Amino acid sequence: MKPLIKALPYVLAALVLAGCGTTGGIQDEGQQPIVDDQSTLGGATGQDGAGAQTSGLQGPGGIDMQTLNDPASLLSKRVLYFDFDSSKINEEERAIVTAHAGFLANNPAARMTLEGHADERGTREYNIGLGERRALAVRQLLLFMGARDDQIQTISYGEEKPASLGHDESSWRLNRRVEILYEGL
Fold first, then answer.
1. How far is it, in rounded angstroms, from Cα 73 to Cα 56?
2. Minimal CA–CA distance to 97: which of 63, 139, 148?
3. Which of 2, 8, 96, 133 gets the highest tally of CB atoms within 10 A of its CB?
4. Beta-carbon contacts of residue 134 (< 8 Å; ≥ 6 apart)
5. How much is the pTM?
């Protein structure tokens, strides 16, 4: 039994070293590496640059980021406002949410974060909860309209990041909001 116990550390060390070995195979010589040539996207098409063309800004996953910044599109609107102490999405804000839901459904690689905010009235804890309810309300509507769960993150800042620093209704109205932030913009 004693020789077996003395040999145990060597056996364990041999097993650890065997586990560190690679199992990578030899690459098939006939297999060509895949090269994604994107040299003509948004750039010159000739050797001297003649015939240069531009295209929209392509984000990760081929997302057309220019669409998000077109001022004529509802997609350029990325702040939703709420009534006092409410997480109900107003009718005029629903059109914006609908546009963003369609964009997410058509661009599976697109990701966004919804930041919920509240005005300064109420306790800090209550406003964190209210900002969360607002962000989750927008998220639910986006999911209902075709966005995928993994495309949307939510966070609540409550009253911690006001859009306006005033202490009147015109400032509070701007602070009761959900901001839509796309990755890569």
1. 15
2. 139
3. 96
4. 80, 82, 87, 116, 117, 118, 156, 176, 177, 178
5. 0.67
